[in-house]
Amino acid sequence: MRMKRTIWLSGALVDSQSAMIGALSPAAQFGLSVFEGIRAYRSEKTGALNVFRLNEHLERLFDSCSLVGFCSPYNMSELESIIKMVVRANDYRSDIAIRVAVFVDGEGSWTSSEPINLFVAPIEKCRSDILQLKALKACVSSWVRIGDNSLPPRVKLGANYINSRYAYNQAKAFGCDLPIFLASDGKLSESTGACIFLIKDGRLITPLCTSSILNSITRETVIVLGGEMGLLVEERVVDRTELYLADEIFLCGTAAELTPVGQVDQFKIGDGSPGKITLALLKQYHAAVSGELEQHASWLTPI
Ligand code: PMP
Predict the structure, then answer these.
(1) Active site includes 268?
(2) ipTM surpassing 0.90
(3) Nearest of 230, 287, 206, 285 to residue 44 by alpha carbon
(4) Same domain, 116 and 147
(5) Which of 184, 192, 182, 285 shows the shortest CA–CA distance to 243?
């Protein structure tokens, strides 16, 4: 266990053990907190630590703030400087994850928009090991994904994850690793903290951004990398039964990277182990985050 972690809270660098927010805060009571999970990867060649797609994460954080009615306490470039400062203060040697949250502190209600606060907390987290990767067992949840006219999944709001929690608890009780959500129209949506791709006859298929999903940065990255690898990419409405007939399935997200799925409900996907195209895409993803793809140098922000 890491003993000492320096985070940013209430405008200063503080030890995470002494970092406090209000017990009566709307963030604690109602999940009134928008956040981003960001990764920084160390280049195996140069040893430099680079944040992956920082601008896109910050833009999404600002979109979340705007939709939920928060005024971010910092602008984009101030936030970027704070993130760099916090990471440097911890002097990590490995790859890391960085959690950034804008939330309502104080003692108000779910209607409150102040006092607004921010934390930035880095956590050691290594990239996945392709050689150790196992395919997960998933089930289609009987819980329906939240929708744009109720609790928009496009907003990365803490409270949204309670929908994920119900589905996750059910999947675990059924002996699965994770659930897959259908949207209210019965079509494929996403998983609890990751989007989903199917591979069928060499085509890469994923639900639309309007299929009750978070507008995932990894999803967009995979679409670009898949296209460059010569795969045909289809962003479209996807039926549940297409899952069962897929050659390969993987989840994708900043934390999940690319996570293979080897079974959905009673149906084995391929031979039940991580698929060849999934692994090739993950290898390319690791090349991108490590700064080995010259054409995507702009995806990296050096610390
Ligand atoms: N969907 C949900 C609900 C998520 O929480 C995440 C993780 N942020 C994703 C999808 C994947 O998004 P991203 O690739 O931007 O991390």
Answers:
(1) no
(2) yes
(3) 287
(4) no
(5) 182
